[in-house]
Amino acid sequence: MIKVGDKLPATTLFEYFDVEGEGCSIGPNAFEVAKASAGKTIALFALPGAYTPTCSAKHVPGYVSKADEFKAAGVDEIWCLSVNDAFVMGAWGREQGAAGKVRMMADGSAAFATAAGLTLDLTARGMGVRSNRYSMLVVDGVVKTLNVEGPGKFEVSDADTLLAQAKAR
């Protein structure tokens, strides 16, 4: 499993945009993690799936509502990762009001989750291999804090916990 001091996995994530801008087509657009995180402080959180109860009711809304506080604490971007495709993540982001606050990043084949050692096997529940629920503060591609949830828990990967860690660094 990835740990504090490790570099983020050299994988590709995908993102869907509602409007064209900054040379990006509407989507899906591929982003190499190393390039996208270089020189930035990123509040990254991951969850098992778009539109799932805890993820939709608590996890994403916490980060969306605290986006300005993260910026004030020196965070350049907030990334939400899930093992869904970019179209699903784009639609979910629209519903969650994430535009301009949280980048909804698709890890459709679980490549990032697998490389980080943070997968969750929900095959028995009909969801296949997913990402575990966690958060991390990343500076220039290096993990500075890591908060991994226990099975079925939502206690340490919330926005308040990661925001306190961002403010403390």
What does this entry show, briefly?
By secondary structure, the chain is an alpha/beta fold. Helices cover 30% and strands 27% of the residues. The strands form three sheets. Strands 5-4-3-8-9 form a five-stranded mixed sheet. Strands 1-2 form a two-stranded antiparallel ribbon. Strands 6-7 form a two-stranded antiparallel ribbon.
Number of helices: 6
Proportion of residues in helical segments: 25-40%
Supply the CATH superfamily name: Glutaredoxin
Terminal CA distance: 23 Å
Mean pLDDT, to the nearest integer, reads 93
CATH level 1 class label: Alpha Beta
CATH architecture heading? 3-Layer(aba) Sandwich
Please characterize this protein's 3D structure.
The chain is of the alpha/beta class and 169 residues long. The protein has a single domain, classed as Glutaredoxin. 30% of the residues lie in helices and 27% in strands. It contains six helices and nine strands, in the order E-E-H-E-H-H-E-H-E-H-E-E-E-E-H. A five-stranded mixed sheet has the order 5-4-3-8-9. The chain has a two-stranded antiparallel ribbon with strand order 1-2. The chain has a two-stranded antiparallel ribbon with strand order 6-7. Helix 4 links the parallel strand 4 and strand 5. The chain is globular, with a radius of gyration of 14 Å. The chain starts with 11 loop residues before the first strand and ends with a helix.
